[in-house]
Write a structure and sequence with these properties.
The chain is of the alpha+beta class and 256 residues long. The chain has helices at 14-22, 42-51, 85-89, 92-97, 109-118, 130-136, 187-196, 230-242; strands at residues 29-35, 39-40, 55-62, 66-69, 80-83, 102-105, 124-128, 139-142, 152-158, 173-180, 202-209, 217-224, 245-253. It is elongated and about 65 Å long.
């Protein structure tokens, strides 16, 4: 999404990623928002609202987990594999077939590669991407150890300021919004009808607890189109009339 001429700034938590961009320490941030096997990354939905950093692009990445070791390591000598807990859970069949290797939680997949390269212990390996192995100078011990090959993660690219975008031929724009509704019967149905009655395709809806309001919720909605299009603009205007709160999180080219 950004090309090759970039410098990386690893962060240990999602909040650190958002904070680095908000403070100007980073020029852009990439965060996961949902996975086809484990669903939404709820924490990042909360950060999108709290930090108000616009979404400027999205991509979908096929997740391939690899066992990665130090340059002198061998598969037979590995006794511990470290990685993010979601990655470890996606490789359960690998651990069942190799009971001598125990799983150990670390804060991140790529960060686990960084850790094994800093620590001089060839019996400890990491589970991460081939790109992470190449970046840190580590060795691929076994490729593609994930249980399910239909494993994709959707990522958002964030910046401090959203550029003006025009739809490219064959690549429609997508818009992400968040809103809250009065706690009354049929309110959510009427909110969604603002899009349905105008034949606007709603791509995803996600609810999150509305902090400070007992058992009330924020609704995150992705729809195909741009707020600049009359049909979408009218739908959003209609939605505002029925909601307590609404904000646009970003308008960006839809990942294909």
């Amino acid at each position: 999404m950004l090309g090759d001429a970039i410098d990386f700034l690893p962060c240990e938590s999602f909040e650190d990623v958002f904070q680095a961009l908000a403070s100007g320490q980073a020029d852009a941030s990439v965060v996961p928002i949902e996975n086809t096997l484990h669903g939404s990354v709820h924490e990042n939905y909360d950060h999108l609202l709290n930090f108000k950093l616009p979404i400027v692009a999205e991509t979908r990445v096929r997740i391939v987990h690899n066992l990665i070791g130090r340059p002198e390591a061998t598969l037979l000598k590995v006794r511990t594999a470290i990685s993010h807990p979601v990655a470890l859970r996606q490789c359960l069949n690998f651990f069942k077939s190799r009971k001598r290797i125990r799983a150990q939680i670390d804060y991140d997949t790529a960060g686990s590669v960084r850790r094994i390269m800093k620590e001089n212990d060839p019996s400890v390996a990491a589970i991460a991407s081939e790109t992470a192995a190449a970046y840190y100078g580590a060795k691929l011990l076994k490729k593609s150890i994930e249980d399910d090959r239909h494993n994709y993660t959707r990522f958002f690219l964030l910046k401090r300021k959203a550029p003006r975008r025009a739809a490219k031929k064959g690549v429609p724009l997508k818009t992400s919004i968040v809103f809250s509704t009065p706690n009354k019967p049929g309110t959510l149905f009427r909110c969604l009808s603002a899009f349905a009655l105008r034949d606007i395709n709603m791509d995803k809806i996600e609810s999150r607890p509305f902090r400070g309001r007992m058992f009330e919720y924020l609704f995150y909605l992705d729809f195909l189109g741009s707020p600049d299009e009359p049909n979408c603009r009218n739908a959003m205007s209609h939605l505002r009339e029925m909601t307590d709160f609404m904000a646009v999180l970003g308008c960006y080219p839809q990942a294909t």
